[in-house]
Amino acid sequence: MKLMLAVSVMFLTIVGCKEKSSIEPVSVAAASDVAASRAPAAPPPVASAAPAVKKSLCSQLDGWTKDLVDSCVEAEQVQPRYRTMNQDANGEGMVRAMELVRISGHLRKETAAKGKALRQRITDLEALDLEPKEVPVRDQLLKGLTLDAVIFERYSEAFHLGAKGFILLDQISEMVAGTLQLSKKLDVDLHKQCAATTASPIGISPTAPSASGPSGTPASETPTPAIVAGSTGMVLIPPGTFTMGSDTGNGSERPARAVTITQPFLVDKLEVTAGDYQHCVSAGSCSPTSIHGPAATADSVETQSDLCTAGDPLKTNYPINCIDRKQAEAYCEFDGKRLPTEAEWEYAARGKSGFKYPWGETVSGCDQAIVGGCQKGTAAVGSRPAGASPFGALDMAGNVWEWVADGWSDNPAGLGTSDPVAPPGNFLGVIRGGSWDFSAPHATTWSRFKFTIGSGHVNTGVRCAKSGGG
Question: What is the gyration radius of the CA atoms in the chain, in angstroms?
């Protein structure tokens, strides 16, 4: 009893629980009112800038809407992380309680930093000197960013409250799930709206690809795709040096740097299909798929499970989805293969020319990839041959996100420049390539996304690799 009392007192003292807190239920509708009340005051009018330096909302929309969706997904994953840690700590004594305090403090700092970053986005956005046609776009994005900033501020407050924060976590869960869906729709709608007001669609450069890499060295010619005999359905990726990352990407995607893959490898030309995966399940080597794991919500299970392709006789040639990383690893092992490393995946997707998308620098509607706004759900694998990578792999942009072998790293550039790979980790992994429910900027060759390795969703799939040349 004394030990339990000591743990309780220490926990409350270190976390800093407040004697009095104003926790009120929050709905998605009410969240908009909260966002409006907390939005920063509009800055004084900005003098019109010279055309050469004038900022354009459309030119910056790629990263900003991507930030919005990414942070919403992060928010959706924070709550189960905190719940799991608290359950682990419950009844385990002082050491476990102290560990919970430490991790809780770390998460509070993480969420506070995210809220601050989103607030800065809001300030930057309000300061833009815009054309009248761009103002409606700006206003929609402001609403989404402000609402998301409020979510992270609420999470930070919950972690500060420690054990009492569970009340607040429960009350904002609806807000988080609702905002994620709203943000995905906003992401797609804004790109459509902005594309209609500019000469070039969002995420598309009107200029031809640069003839040089990040260091000014001439880019190699696009290699001829090669399907290797004896390795049915795979393409050969030769050793080589390529541009990984981007100077214009989000934090963990920067900077653009030269990375070398020293050994040849093979990668599946197509994403693993539902029919392929069923053979593994029937053999007892793979487990059935479903929406599951820490990233799954009751709402997503109820409303989106019919989008999982497994078991649908009409979708045997569609990509398997609703798959977590362990299931992806199990399938690749069953097929005598493995997951590609993140560096291998990016090299296979963009080649030595350093393309923004697997096929080049521009996006033409839905002809090259199934991304947000094209359709609800996945499409048959290989149905967009115009989107082939320089090595001949298909669907490396859109359709489903693809698991890679690496665990999540906030600084992959620090892993080295020769065959870099991050430790697999035990909570957060990496998915690449974008999907049918994320807009085109998420499907760039350098775009990377963190996801809990034990989660499977309607947009997670797999493509396997194999060491050597055949």
Answer: 23
Mean pLDDT in order along the chain per 10 residues (470 residues): 32 31 36 39 36 47 63 64 55 52 65 75 74 73 75 69 59 62 67 54 30 35 41 85 93 94 96 96 96 84 94 95 97 97 98 94 92 93 95 97 96 96 92 93 94 94 91
Residue 72 vs residues 152, 185, 242, 300, 427: alpha-carbon distances, Å: 9, 12, 32, 15, 18
SS3 268: strand
User: pLDDT of 398-417, one tens digit each?
Assistant: 999 999 999 999 999 999 99
Distance CA 379, CA 108 (A): 40
The residues, any chain, with a CB within 8 Å of residue 108's CB and separated by 6 or more, are: 156, 159, 160
Element holding 235 (H helix, E strand)? strand 234-237
Contact of 434 with 398, CB cutoff 8 Å = yes
Q: Is 11 helix (H, G, I), strand (E, B) or coil?
A: helix
Q: Would you say 322 and 291 are in contact if contact means Cβ atoms under 8 Å apart? A: yes
